[in-house]
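pinned: reference chain
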Amino acid sequence: MINVLVFPCGSEVGLEVNEALKRDKHVRLFGLSSVPCHGKFVFDNYIEGISFISSDTFIDELNAVIDQYDIDVLIPAYDDVILYLSDNRDKLNCRLVTSGAETCHVARSKGRTYQKLEGCDFVPRVYSPDEITGSDLPLFAKPDIGQGSQGAFRIDTLDDLQVIRDSDEEYLICELLPGKEYTVDCFTDMDGEIISMSMRSRNRIRNGISVNTASVPLTDEVRAIGRAINERISFDGVWFFQIKKAADGRFKLLEVAPRVAGSMSLSRVRGFNYILNSVYQTMGVKVSGVEHMLEKIEEDRALSNNYKLFLDYSTVYIDLDDTLIFKDKVNTEAMAFVYQCVNSGKKVKILSRHARREQDTLDKFRIDERLFDEIIHVEDEELKSSYIKEKDAIFIDDSFRERADVSRVNGILVFDIDCIPALTENQ
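pinned: its structure tokens
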């Protein structure tokens, strides 16, 4: 078993790491955060309260966590954390999943990245504020060190340059790239060869994160850009670069990063798990590339809900019609919850006024009746509340009348079917 620690676990990168690793039988995941975060709701093993990386005690606190949980590898999940931990790699009591410190420093600065790749025709032209004339406009300005599109803006007039002159932040002024933006997810093996590249469009972006992305065929031009970057910058495992089309239709580089991308999930489901293979490579396993299976795939992301109910119960009473079966189909959310109960040793009992024999309907929808500890048929003149005996049971039914009666008579918690996702642990 490989014990993997993710920090900070609540970042978009950390959440994708969780999705990429949590189903692997050889990995035990731990999420670490300095402050309360969403990682608490998705990591089975969640640790909170470590100091920020700016603290003098951070490394000692981190090593205490590493030792306590016997951590094998640490995955940094935020740009500043990657840079800090890569500089302090030798002080850690475990292995670090990222490229070397020099690469992390180059990638953190767009200016240094462009200098490293000087002479490559895919590097955008960079301007000094003092040399810009009206004929050069429009241009584009972005912080030399930053993430997403924070602080970036278009320069349409010479007066716009005053923002840069007045800023304490170092800006990079580049040619304006009016075309579409793409991300290329990459993996470099332990021999320094790129063994996987997956290109995807950034169709809709929120807070610098691609919330709608779609697979795009990898062109010879883009493949050559990836190989050229890999030849000049030394990567280890997962990394990505972002490109955008210039006015002449050629691709120009925006940035590179030696880490997981928040929407790398699209490339992952195409058949190559970039972060899992990075963990294996960090542990000394030789990784081989595979052909991407899905040529056409689109991913759309939005806010999702995760719950912790702090609820203790031994038995579930659940209705059949319009609950386990909904609109003449199996309610897969309800069945996921049933299996969760089976896994945790809780009893599940069907409590139904079904017009036919319940077992026949279960057979029709290929639901094994052995999942249920008891199947109770309730006649029309009877109340479901009269069949519930356990004091620590819960009741799930689509009928408000049934729920109200059970709540009043039995004094237990009752739920409509829209509450089932809240009862179901994060999958």
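why pinned: The CA atoms of residues 51 and 58 lie 6 Å apart. The chain is about 25% helix and 25% strand.
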